[in-house]
Amino acid sequence: MPSHVLILGGTAEARELAAVLALREGVRVTSSLAGRVARPGAVDGEVRVGGFGGAEGLAAWLREHRVDAVVDATHPFAEAITRNAARAAAAAGVPLVVLRRPGWRPGPGDRWHAVDSLDAAAGLLPRLGRRVFLTTGRLGLAAFAHLTEPHFLVRSVEPPEPPMPPNLRVVLARGPFTEADETELLRAHRVDVLVTKDSGGAATAAKLSAARRLGLPVVVVRRPPLPPRLTAVPDVTAVLEWLGPPTAPGAAAADTCP
Description:
Elements: E1 4-8, H1 12-22, E2 28-33, E3 46-49, H2 54-64, E4 69-72, H3 79-92, E5 96-99, E6 111-115, H4 118-124, E7 131-135, E8 151-156, E9 168-172, H5 179-188, E10 193-197, H6 206-214, E11 217-221, E12 231-233, H7 236-243, H8 251-256
Parallel strand pairs: 1-2, 1-4, 2-3, 4-5, 5-12, 6-11, 7-8, 7-10, 8-9, 10-11
Helix pairs in contact: 2-3, 5-6
């Protein structure tokens, strides 16, 4: 087990991993948050907020703070962070693992339209519906700002900022939400198409079940590919296996005894 683990966080899995590692004797755990949410949930261990200054800045931070292992547990669409983490870990000679929860898969009754980008999703919308539940994150609204005909419903923890579509209604709320919650929301706002990213996980999957129940089309933005030669695992248990077992109390002292 490394003595200092840096977790690039912001996800539920990152918080879960930090909570486990914070309880392990002799392990220093630091969680790094991008700072895009003003009031993030509580995180165990040390927390730093803000960027590192690209790959070079992160590599310097890894050396300065004597980090032994990096866990990239950021959102599956945090492409730039993952790319910088891969470059920084390689430059600093620090092992890196990527925690990526499995993506969603369509089931019976789903009407999914898979696309590779937000721009492609925006281009597809006019053929699918006029009342859109847009769940791609407040930072992705710019890709839909040029669409003047559809009416958009956006749910966010914090108010979004321009650019964004002109016909927009914002609901401020923090999940998780149940299938009943999502079904009621879709019906109340007469939504006829859902747009989402393939974030994966159970926490935000209820909207997909609600869309299936109501027979609505869903535009799903595929995940960006990971950089080559990275080790990726699907859950916290696999990360803990990668890190290795906890060091037994007194083991280090015993190793140095004559």
